[in-house]
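A further point concerns the way the authors explain their paired sequence and structure data. Since the whole study asks how a given chain folds, the encoding of that fold should be made plain. A single example would do more here than another paragraph of explanation. An entry of this sort, consisting of the sequence and the corresponding backbone structure tokens, reads as follows:

_____
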Amino acid sequence: MLKVSYLVPLYNKEDYIEECIDSILQEETENLEIEICVVDDGSLDHSLQVVQNRYGDDQRVKIASFLVNKGKNAACNKAFEMSTGDYICLFGADDVVVPGRTEKLLNVSLLDNKAVYGGLIAKDENLKEEYFRQYPKPQSLYSISMRNGLSGGCVIIPIDNCNGVFPIPENLKFEDWWVGYFLVKMDKVSILNEYVTYYRIGIQNDCGTYGGDPYSNVKKDYVRHLDYITELRKLFDNSFLDKSEDLRNSFLGQPVKNIFYFKNFDSISIKIILFKFFGAKRVYDFFYFFKKN
């Protein structure tokens, strides 16, 4: 029997964590063992108590906690240390499993021993209003260096593909791009064009945004992407990261190494030129004006 370990970092999600865990436990079958490793990251609400009271006697749910908030990646790393599964799934404490997702992802992974990404359905905090649906896009080293196109909450990873992925640097504000980069570089990614995760988007989200000012949404992510690129440079010599860094710096009005990227001349190259000569705020205001009208 195969075992799949779900890693669930938990912070101030008392209203959602039971629905999350229950949806994962329902994935267990006669041929598939489910383990859930929950790490409370110093929650200020009753998240930890909810989990302890409801699942404290359930051997399928392992519970750990930090006395103070250490960040999502520290909780992910601790959950990974606790896990004993043949496969790993990263999962948000406020997200919900699409029934049957574990077995579907697992069946594809068994064919080539690769990590498998499925699609997500983004909804509001009550999981009633649907914002959008998104399948993962095939990634090259170039594309994954420019931006993350793989959602961490939609993946299953064979345990022997986790070398180097964990521990995730704790100074980073999110894990998706870090994990995706490693897997793509190792050529260990397959795509499943089926939806596997109901993804909540609300005010407590680390990354997800919907609506509002596009410029502010992009700026929020671009600022923290620079930390991600810095960490990758410590491990990999990849010229694509220069272009990725220049995109962020040009957006933020910082100096860049190069302005005209003719090799792989694409929308990223055009953005760098426009941001550098006109400023990102003006560029976004210009296109947003025409989009509204």
Summary: The chain has two domains: 2-200, 214-292. The chain has a mean pLDDT of 93. The beta strands are 2-10, 32-41, 61-66, 87-90, 96-97, 115-123, 130-134, 155-158, 189-200. The two ends are 57 Å apart (CA to CA).
